[in-house]
Amino acid sequence: MMTRDSPDAILDSVSVEPPPLRANQEFDDFYAANVRALTSQLLAYTGNKAEAEDLVAEAFCRALARWKKVRDYQNPVAWVRRVAWNLATSQLRRRGVVQRFLNRQRETHETAPDGDRVDLMRALASIQPNHRKAVILRYMAGLTVSEIAEQEGTPEATVRSWLFRGKAALADRLSIRDEREQR
């Protein structure tokens, strides 16, 4: 008969089972056995080590998420390889689209504005907004007084007033002299 404190009773109460395997030990072994070869293959395809590592890691992540199904495939490594190659192909395709777009873009070089243009821009910036808008729409955009009035929702007489005042303000700021005054 065993007593509570006998050595046999203590041993019976202690479980001596081996530690359980990690739930993903099978996947970890699969990963360790195949990651280098797949990374080398993707490196040869992409030409970029960091990109190849990222693609292979993404493919293995997708395999892990579906491991119960993928492990039963006849060749699980072929599935992971296919996923990695599909990811690489998609990435290369996207990069090609971006490159074609960039190739169509032409860099334009604007000449620096001459002194007169700088003076005009400063003078325009210094007049009242309604006057500035009317002058720009009339003389740069080529709109008529009636078109400006319609766009601004104001009477034509008001637009004519804005134009008159705007031109007077610009003339004052730009020191424009009438040809008759210079004679």
How does this structure look, described?
With 183 residues, this protein is mainly α. 73% of the residues lie in helices and 0% in strands. The chain contains 10 helices and no strands. Helix 7 (129-140) crosses helix 9 (156-174).
How are the elements arranged and paired?
Layout: H1 7-13, H2 25-46, H3 49-65, H4 67-70, H5 76-104, H6 115-126, H7 129-140, H8 145-152, H9 156-174, H10 179-182
Helix pairs in contact: 2-3, 2-5, 3-5, 6-9, 7-9, 8-9
Write a concise keyword list for the protein shown above.
183 residues, rod-shaped, mainly alpha
What's the short story on this structure?
By secondary structure, the chain is mainly alpha-helical. The chain has helices spanning 7-13, 25-46, 49-65, 67-70, 76-104, 115-126, 129-140, 145-152, 156-174, 179-182.
What is the number of strand segments? 0
Largest beta-sheet details: none
Provide mean pLDDT, rounded: 83
What is the overall shape? rod-shaped
Residue fraction in strands: under 5%
Q: Counting H and I runs of at least 4 residues, what is the number of helices? A: 10
Low-confidence stretches: none
Give helix % range: over 70%
What's the SSE pattern? HHHHHHHHHH
What Rg is obtained from the alpha carbons, in whole angstroms?
Answer: 39 Å
